[in-house]
Design brief:
The structure is a homodimer. With about 210 residues, chain A is an alpha/beta fold. The first copy, chain A, has a single domain, classed as Dihydrofolate Reductase, subunit A. The first copy, chain A, contains 6 helices and 11 strands. Chain A has a 9-stranded mixed sheet. A two-stranded antiparallel sheet of chain A has the order 2-9. The two termini of chain A are about 15 Å apart. The mean pLDDT of chain A is about 95. Chains A, B: It comes from Kitasatospora cinereorecta.
């Protein structure tokens, strides 16, 4: 049965999944790299950059689980890029270069649909105006029986949690305070009742919280 | 040198230190007991209730550190009780019965000062209208060279963090989502820069985050 999964989603102690003031130079706004230092050290991230080495402990084990069994991703428009409103720059093709790490269809939620963009390595960005259930229907169809990843950002993960469409949620609590940005947890009072929850802290100082549907 | 310490301060994943709708029957409002289940299981808490038994692991080790070396506590008015505005019920003497667990002077921050209340066992509630620095000055004087505990609630801990008056902060992140209430972390962007930070998860599922002044 195809599952809906979130992986490697970092939040601050105050629950922000990204900072304020996103721009082409600062995908996470004023948060900079603070939410993802743990991830940058892993083999999984370094391999995405074409580099060798990296940590091989629990952070890596968790980070590396993001790809197996995934047939499509859904992401919010702000994960795809910093543009707001009607698309001005059609040359923007995401933060990930010509060969993005997804290698599957990726459904970008937007109120401004545009033609699909085919990248190297199997990633195809589709731009869809749809609520979570409809976006998931399309992604499942494209995933060919495999799982669907909800890639973020926080508003998108939250929308899918509100719609109770997530089966597995991996959140990484980073012991920093961002103060402003976009919160993950708003409106999700009692979320814990819907999941089996595990937490583990690693030597990098982060806490991996996994919630899986009971 | 006298230190300023916070112990056993539970927050939800979304950063709430208490829920919404405090009343005499619900000190933590709609949060109920969800933030403190880990604490209720410890020997330290059970001993406060005059009971035997309880957990003896890391939760207990952390919980039990709250008393040693403390000469006074400062708490917000909402930790003391559910009344707001001018005191209507002078018979209210806190949630803790005739012999509260503090056994030291306790300074209750309020815009409505009233005469001190002496309890059994050495606890004396003083009601002071003061900013954090002045309240700390008074508490330090009463503590006779010992440390001062900032007892909560979240607004009070936050005010002392904003004023950079905390030396040791022990926060317990509980993997629940409260959705509403009073947040601990608001306005504290970059707090991590002022502290050495450690995190450890325990089998109860909570994460103890300790911040000590570098």
């Amino acid at each position: 049965m195809s599952r809906v999964r979130v992986h490697n989603f970092s939040v601050s102690l105050d629950g922000f999944g990204t900072g304020e003031g996103q721009s082409a130079e600062a995908p996470f706004g004023h948060a900079g790299s603070r939410l993802h230092e743990w991830f940058f050290l892993t083999r999984t991230f370094r391999a995405m950059q074409g580099k060798e080495g990296g940590t091989a402990g629990v952070d890596e084990a968790m980070a590396g689980a993001w790809r197996a069994g995934i047939g499509a991703e859904i992401m919010g428009r702000n994960k795809f890029g910093p543009q707001r409103g009607p698309w001005q720059d059609h040359e923007w093709k995401g933060w990930w270069g010509p060969n993005p790490p997804f290698h599957t269809p990726v459904f970008v939620l937007t109120h401004h649909p545009r033609p699909s963009v085919e990248m190297e390595g199997g990633t195809v960005f589709h731009f869809v105006e749809a609520d979570p259930a409809e976006a998931l229907r399309q992604a499942r169809e494209a995933a060919g029986g495999l799982d669907v990843r909800i890639g973020g950002g926080p508003s998108t993960v939250r929308a899918f949690l509100e719609a109770d469409l997530i089966d597995e949620l991996h959140v990484v609590v980073v012991p920093i305070v961002l103060g402003r940005g976009v919160r993950l947890w708003d409106g999700l009072d009692g979320l814990e009742d819907r999941f089996r929850i595990e937490s583990v802290t690693t030597p990098s100082g982060v806490t991996h919280v996994t919630m899986s549907r009971t």
